[in-house]
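Fold these two proteins, one after the other.
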Amino acid sequence: MNRLTVYDPFADVFPELFRNFVVQGRSEKNGNVDIRIDVKETEQAYQVHADIPGVKRDDIHVDVDGNLVSITAEVKRDNEVKEGEKVLRTERYRGSMTRSFTLANEIDESQAGARYEDGVLELTLPKKATASARRLKIA
C-alpha cells in the first residue's frame, strides 16, 4: 500500500516554532474564541443558542438576511497582575468574532427575537410563510 506524506519545507528548520504557533493561534488562552452554536428546528421557527462568554450585550450584533444569519461580537479582555503598587504585567486583547450560517427556510425578520443571558445568546427565528404554489391557466 502506498503512503502519502505531505512535504513541509519548514518542518526541519523550525519544527517546534511553527507547530506551536498554529496550535496557540486558535487557543482560548490567546483570546481567540469561536462562537459555538446549537440550532433546533420546529415547524414554525428555528431556535439558536450561541455561546459567547465574556462579551457585553451591547457588543453583540445579529443580522438576518433571508435565510442567512450572522452573529458578530466585539471581544475586549483585560488582564492586569499587580503586586502591591507596582504593575508587573498588563495584557489586553481586542478583536471580533463572527459566525454566519444558512438555514433551510427564510426568516421573518419582523418577528425574530434575541436574548442574551449568562454568556448564551438565544435567538428565536420564525420561518417566513411560504407562498403556496398555484397552477396557471393557459389562455
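Now the second one:
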Amino acid sequence: MSRSMDLAPSDALLDPSLRRQSKRRLTGLRMLYFATALLLVFSLVRLITGVANLTAAGTVAAALGLAVPIGMAGLGGLWSERAGVVNIGLEGMLVLGTFGAGWAGYQWGPWVGLMAAILFGALGGLLHAVATVTFAVDQIVSGVAINILAIGMTQFLAAEWFTGVPGGGQTQSPPLEPIGSVTLPGISSAAATVADQGWFFVSDLAGIVAGLTTDVSYITVIAIGLTIATFYILWRTAFGLRLRSCGEAPYAAATLGVNVIKYKYIAVITSGALAGVGGAFLAIVAAGIYREGQTGGRGYIGLAAMIFGNWRPGGLAVGAGLFGYTDALQLRGGGAVHALLLLTAILLIVYAGWLLYRRRLLGGAISMGVAAAVYYWYATTSDVPSQVAFVTPYVATLLVLALATQRLRMPAADGRPYLKGEEH
C-alpha cells in the first residue's frame, strides 16, 4: 500500500512532504481562481467599452513578443541575484546581444545570430563577474560601467563593421533573415473562430489561446523553455540549492564545501547569456535588424519585473507579461489605453476591498481614492493623449513596484561582496 494511503488524514498534517504537496495544490487552485476572475473583469470591460483589442489575439501575441526581452533580462537578473550579485548591467548585456545578433545574423543566418547574441551577452556577464566577484568592485558601479561600455563599444564596432555594407550603416546592421515561427494546427484556427464571435468570457479566453498558439517565434518558445528550466534547475536540483545558498549565506555555504566563487561566476555569466537571448529577440524577431538604441531600457524594466516576481521565475513571468501587455495596448492605439483606465479603476476597487477586509484602512482608503480619480478620468474623456499611451508601460512599472513592496524578500546576501576566508 502506498505511503499516502497508510497515513490517516490527521497524519498528513504532521508530514512535511504532504503539507508541501497540499500547499502547492492550494496555490495552483488560487492562481486558477485569480486568473478566471481577472479574465471575467477583462470581459466585462470589453463589453462596456466595446474595445475588442483588450483580449484580441493580436494584442495577446504582441504582448507575448514584447514580454520576451523583458522576461529574459529579468531571468538573467534572477540568476545573478540568487547567487548574491546585483546585475544593473543587464541593459548593456541586452545591447551586446542585439549587436551580436545583427553582426553574425546577416552573415551566417538567424540561428548563428542567436548563438552570437548569447555569447556576446555572456561576455558582458563574465566582465561583471570578474569585476564584482574577483576584485570585489561595487556591484552597482560595475553594472553602470558595463551599460556605458556596451553602448560605446557597439557604436564603435557598428561604424567599423556595418558602414559600406549593403543595407547597413553607422547605426544599424543589414537586414536579418527571419528565424521562423510555430503555429499549433487545429487549436489556433479553432480558437480564432471562437474569438471572432464576441461571446462573453469564452471569446476572450479563445482570443488569448489564439494569440499564444499562432505564429509564435522560435526564440519565444526557447524563452519559455528557459523560464521553466530555470525553476527546475534552481529549485529542484542540488546545483540550484548550492547556487541559491551563495545568495543567502555564502560563508556558511563555503564551510559546507560549496565553491562560492565558482557558483557566482556561473550565475553571472548565465545572467548575461539570458540577456543575450532577449537582445537576439529584439534584433532578429521584433525588428529584423540591429539598430542602435533598440533596447529602450528593457533591461531596467526586466529588473523591475524580477523584483515584482519576488525573485521567482513564475512571478517574473507574470511581471514581464504585465509590462508587455501594457506596452502592446499603447501600440494598439489610445482607445485601448482609455479602456485600460476603466480596467484599472475596477482592479483598484477590488484591491481596496481586500485591504479593508484585512483591516488595512489607510491603504484601502488610498486605493479607493485613486480608483475614484482614475474612473473620473475615464468617465470625463473619450480618449487619452498619445503621450499618456507612450508612458503607460513605465507608469505600470512604478505602480507594480509600489504595490508589491509589502511582500518582497530579496536573497539575504544579495549585493554583498564575498571575500574568501573573511566573514562579515
